[in-house]
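Hey all, sorry for the wall of text incoming. These are the two entities for the joint prediction.
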Amino acid sequence: MEQGTKEANAHQLTLPIEGMSCASCVRTVEGALDNLSGVEKATVNLAGGKVSVVYDPTRVNVAKVTQAITDLGYAIGVEEARLRVTGMTCASCVSHVETALRELEGVQNAVVNLGLETARVAYIPGLVTPGRMKRAIREAGYEAEEKAAGVEALDREKEARQREIRRQGMYLAFTLPIAMLVMLGTFRDMWILPLFVPEWLGYKWVLGLLTTPIVLGPGRQFFVNSWRGLRHGVTDMNLLYATGIGAAYLIAVINTLWPKAGFGGEGATFFESAALLTTFIVLGRWLEALTRGRTSEAIRKLMRLQPKRARILRDGHEIEIPADEVEVDDVVLVRPGEQVAVDGVVLEGYSAVDESMLTGESLPVEKKAGDQAIGGTMNKTGAFKYRATRVGQETALAQIIKLVEDAQASKAPIQKLADWVAGHFILGVHMLAALVFVFWFFAGYDLFFDPDSAFILSPYKLGEIGVFGFSLLLSVTVLVISCPCAVGLATPSAIMAGAGKAAEHGVLFKNAEAIENASKLQTIIFDKTGTLTKGEPSVTDVVTPDGGPETEDGRLSVLRLAAIAEKNSEHPLGEAIVRGAQARGLQVPDAESFNAIPGHGVEARVDGREILLGNRKLMRERDAVVAPLLPQAEALERDGKTVMFVAVGGRLAGLIAVADTLKEYSVEAIQWLHRSGVEVAMITGDNRRTAEAIARQVGIDRVLAEVLPQDKAEEVKKLQAQGLKVAMVGDGVNDAPALAQADVGMAIGSGTDVAKETGHVILIKEDLRDVVVAIEAAKATMGKVRQNLFWAFAYNTLSIPIGAGLLYPVFKLVVSPEWAAFLMAVSSITVTVNTLLMRSFVPSIRREERRQQAAQRPLVVAATASGGK
Amino acid sequence: MEQMEQLEREVAIRSAATYAGISLAAALAVFIAATLKGGYADVARFGGAIWVFMLMMIVTMPVVTSWFKKRYRQRRTG
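and here's what came out:
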């Protein structure tokens, strides 16, 4: 019997496990789970990477089972669901949806973004399904559906936003004229209104008839939504509106039908309050729907870039197919003015492609055979064929969109306080409304009420309003004037705009925390090789001895001979010399003979002459005197360059210095950073002399030399221990541990393979100035966040006490509910509009570039004009 | 599953009884205080009590419900 009961109570669950590699892992997991009190049977399926557990839920829970597995060093396979959540109006809705999701068994984390209307849920498959999540969201009073990807998602989101704009616009068109009539009717005895407002418009029952369709029509949404929430124990912004509108309307109806009921009588029929309150709230909703979508304009721009069609070659025929049907290795054709459909490598043809939309690079990029073509970019002049290498969700554009979406949906640490406040706001305000009512009902009215007192910005006197009507009025005003929306929107809207704006300039923040940290940076460490420098040696100096042919021709001749001698060499320095000669337009034919002398240099025969190229030791062994060039050689070596002597026919002909050279914008970037007050350091495994030489050239004063790759993270840690906020800029592969250790790891020059990168910020281009762009974008974003938070908190801190009647004892003025609604709507919109100002953000470096381009343009035009004559 | 639904129902009933009780108590307190103080019309006394009841329901409903849910979950996990 006991056995039977036990079996009846037993639950079974299947968990995906990561990290099991052999049969001993199976035994370990099964053993650990079997030892867990309450687990009746655990069976591991190694091939499927799953464990099936039969357990007694009264003695053990899922959390303990998963904990036992993770304690063994294995991971529970977590999947991510992306849902689109509609019906959320403010930050407290975010908190309700997150709570509803997190309460589900198997949900590890849930992050909801109000602006994007998305929920990202990390969950354990088998314990919970996206279907169950959607049900939980619906039960909390909102609508949910699985998020579509790419263009489809864009279309749906746009459609939903348009629908909301249309709906609220229609409501506004309906309520505004009627509310104006109600207001005219209410105040018809004042000023010059009796001259043209008919008397009947001022009748209370006419006002009631006009107000009723407003409250029951457009106002109905607030009552329905708040009831839906309340049924599940959830309170939101709708409830504030509903109680405000409901109370104003109800008092007005009672005072019209039963003027002696004690609610203030005929002098207190607040029909215009109910009408205008509804109108202003609907106006706020409409403006919000208009502006909210614009904060995520950047992601929409990126999504719009996704090409729809592609022209490919199949079986020798040119056919046009949907871009998402292109397969890897398909040959794609691109004509002038067409969009590049997917990522690939150019096979033939020549063109210039505008990549600005993805990399921020303002000038078109030349494309020839062997170059990378990026999907979504715009071909300008020529035509080319390329082989598809990445398609669908693997393309650079898809990866960038995902990264930006992730960043926009994440939460910055600064948001924690705002979230907490917004999450408790509605309850706090209702509690305050109750206290305000009790105070004015039992004490305030007797102490301070004056029948001559009036509403702010209104000639409307409170007159004979009773204690209940007055207390209720102030209590309702507190509900209506408070604005948790402003608090809730302050951070996410700015993060959305900032992350999108940075992406437009080729800077991808992986999350909101990276944006916040980047705005506080004090020290930036640059990796040397491949980051500050090109990472490959190149010829920097060619010197000929006194008495020799010290002319440009002479130097070129020495370089040419050295290049011919090194042509067959595979040594990086030899390759640098060959590249250097070719870059200067020199022909480099094959040598007649060639011999590499390991550790010393090379010897070769060119045009019947013996050429010797190598270090001092080689020259000494072959009796070539290097003394005439020794001072220059030592000076060059002090600058961190490698010097090679060239001897022709046994006589010294010159020397060639080779060094790793700085990237184009390294110096400019460091100067910008110095100017903005950030300390700049360089880290390298090179010897101190070479490192300091490079640091001198680039203008860096702090050098961390001779640091092994594995120790770079330790150096970052040391700086952090000094209390500094540290960023590490590296190439993202060799520097991965240091990038991960830094407060902000910036991976530079990833090109378009953004998904593989380590680091918190990805700079698509090889342009070091983008470090400055990243910092400026982060500072601008956090500046907006602070402004928004300040406004939101300041507004609520000031408006709620005024709404509660704090100024009444002195000034005998109260805020009318309609003014309260208007202020609330303005407050919420102010935050969104302030965020929208981010759209005009241009990094200082780009502004400078544009200024320079604009300055050059008239000269070009003038030159063309004079040429034409 | 059935057992879980039954437990959920139990949580819902208990929390509803609690928040309704608290709100009713607050409303009653307002009504009694107004009556004892005197000088309030019936409409004000009843209206005041109803308004406080509504606000207290709104305040206590989510707090009490989530407290009961938490307690129920803790009991389940032992």
